[in-house]
């Protein structure tokens, strides 16, 4: 397989910035690229595919260690996909937790804004709730959601 693609072209093709490509090489997510006589990195189609996989995984919120594991699984396609499923399921649980947290945050902010009488700061519901943590329902909603998830 010919290594003829310059790093700038790989960056354009994958949407991964040049410094990030170098970083992925440095940490071993991407094999070290062969160099030209002028010491310029060159890549091939497999490198582009691997970088696209990494970028897409990052967009979905997988961390570097998870991506490293997923890449090792991809490199050995005849094994069970159990570990890949487990990684994706754990990510899904985290996303659902964040959605619940954001939904609770949205409700709390709506409650604060709707409770505002648009009068003076001394009677401002927003300031009052921010100043008295006990008046904030956001944390109670998150704690309840976490307890429900733990019992499942």
What is the element layout, followed by pairings?
Layout: E1 5-6, H1 7-14, H2 18-26, E2 42-43, H3 45-59, H4 64-75, H5 82-114, H6 125-131, H7 138-151
Antiparallel strand pairs: 1-2
Helix pairs in contact: 5-7
Describe what you observe in this structure.
- This protein has helices spanning 7-14, 18-26, 45-59, 64-75, 82-114, 125-131, 138-151; strands spanning 5-6, 42-43.
- It is mostly helical and 152 residues long.
- The protein has 2 domains: 5-75, Multidrug-efflux Transporter Regulator, Chain: A, Domain 2 (Orthogonal Bundle), CATH 1.10.1660; 82-151.
- Strands 1-2 form a two-stranded antiparallel sheet.
- Helix 5 runs antiparallel to helix 7 (138-151).
- The longest helix has 33 residues, at 82-114.
- 11% of the residues are buried.
- The mean pLDDT is 85.
Strand content: under 5%
The level-1 CATH class of the largest domain? Mainly Alpha
**DSSP helix count?**
7
Q: Which strand order does the major sheet show? A: 1-2
| CATH level-two architecture of the largest domain | Orthogonal Bundle
Which terms summarize this structure?
mainly alpha; Multidrug-efflux Transporter Regulator, Chain: A, Domain 2; 152 residues; two-stranded antiparallel ribbon
Give a summary of the structure in a few sentences.
The chain is mainly alpha-helical. It is 64% helix and 3% strand.
């Amino acid at each position: 397989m010919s290594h003829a693609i310059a790093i700038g072209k790989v960056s354009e093709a994958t949407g991964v910035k040049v410094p990030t490509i170098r970083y992925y090489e440095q940490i071993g997510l991407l094999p070290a690229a062969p160099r030209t006589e002028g010491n310029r990195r060159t890549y091939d189609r497999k490198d582009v595919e691997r970088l696209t996989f990494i970028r897409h995984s990052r967009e979905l919120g997988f961390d570097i260690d998870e991506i490293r594991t997923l890449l090792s699984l991809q490199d050995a396609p005849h094994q069970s996909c159990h570990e890949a499923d487990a990684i994706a399921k754990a990510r899904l649980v985290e996303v659902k937790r964040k959605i619940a947290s954001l939904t609770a945050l949205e409700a709390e902010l709506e409650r604060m804004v709707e409770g505002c009488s648009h009068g003076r700061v001394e009677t401002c519901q927003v300031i009052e709730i921010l100043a008295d943590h006990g008046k904030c329902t956001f944390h109670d909603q998150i704690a309840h959601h976490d307890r429900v998830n733990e019992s499942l």
